[in-house]
Structure formats: C-alpha cells, structure tokens
Amino acid sequence: MNLSLRSLTALLVASVTVLSAQAEEIKGDAAAGLKKNAMCIGCHGIVGYQASFPEIYKVPKISGQGEKYIVSALNAYKKGERKHPSMRGIATSLTDQDMADLAAYYSASGVDANAKPLEKAADGSAKAMELVAKGGCASCHGESLSKPIDPSYPKIAGQYSDYLYVALKAYKTEGNPQVGRGNAIMGGVAKQFSNAELKELAGYVGSLPGVLKTVPESRFR
After folding, report:
1. pLDDT of the residue at 20
2. What is the third-level CATH fold of 26-213?
3. Domain ranges in the chain?
4. What is the pTM of this model?
C-alpha cells in the first residue's frame, strides 16, 4: 500500500468514526417528545384503536416499548424497509432528533418503576410451544418475550395479537409496494410458518403478561 492510499484509508476510517460518534450523540428528550407526538396520539393514544390497512387490526401498544427499537422501527418506515403508507409518511417527516425524542417519551410512558421483572413466559398449548421453539422467539426477545437481548429488538409479550399476526405476515410479503417488511432475520423466521400457524403464535404471545401499554392522552380519557 502506498502512502497516498494509506492516507486515504486513514481519512475514511476517521470520517466513519466521527459519523458514528455523531450518531451516538443524538439523545432523546422525553419532554420534547411529548410536544412532538401530535401525529402519534390519534392512533397510539386511543386504547383499542383499530387500523384498516391492509386489514383490520388494533394498532400496537408503544408505551413502554424499547427506546432503540422505536427509533429503529421509525427509520425502517422512513427508508421504505417497512411499507405501511401512513407510517412511512409520518416517519419521512421526522428528523433523527425527532425520532430520538419520541422514542424517549414513549419508552418512559406508563412505566411502573416498582414493577417486578417479568419471569419466563408461561407455557401455552403444545402447538404454540412447538411454534415458539421452531421460531426461536426467546433467543432474541428473551425468555419473558419482553426483555430482548438487543435493545433494537422489540418487546412482544402482551402486544395485541391481531397486530402481531399482521406484522408477522408482512415479513412474508414480497413484491407489494404498500405492504411488507424487509428484515431478513424476521423474514426467515416468518416464512417457516403458514398463516394459520402465525395466527396461533401471535395469539400465544399476545396472551402473555407484558409491560407494553396504550396510555391515552388526557383529551381521550
């Protein structure tokens, strides 16, 4: 390697390091997130609110969800890796700071600081447990399915079953410009199962105790 190439390599490494450091410096402000959540509360601030695309299901509980997962999900919508039209429209309007602030707000919303940690998820039917084992759910989402091994993974225990079912099917969907999710790991997991099996799996996960909530805004209480 000649000197100029070494210099260029050093410069590129330094640039990547600076960019990574800048990315890590984006800290969410929960108070700022509360002021920015006007586009969120119309769906996520109403208990049991139902979406109608691509089918009818309850929008997910996001209060108490992991901060890094919320940012990751919003970025996936913004980049088109998740293809829900409404969510992509919202995500594309958000800056990185907006996402961090909203994530900080929702990750703390409704959280009980004195709550005991969730234990290993209780067994369901033999079929459900077979599906959980086949999908390796606990290996990423934790034994309680509410303590992911990586903070960019979601808590899923107690999430609405109908939402989980729609989300799992989206990982199987290909070639649809408005429906689908591009996560390779989850795609590989979901494609092992029939839709009937995904529905049973979602039903089991949704029945478990979890920390996720829908916290109504005062105007909706």
Report:
1. 47
2. Cytochrome Bc1 Complex; Chain D, domain 2 (1.10.760)
3. 26-213
4. 0.88
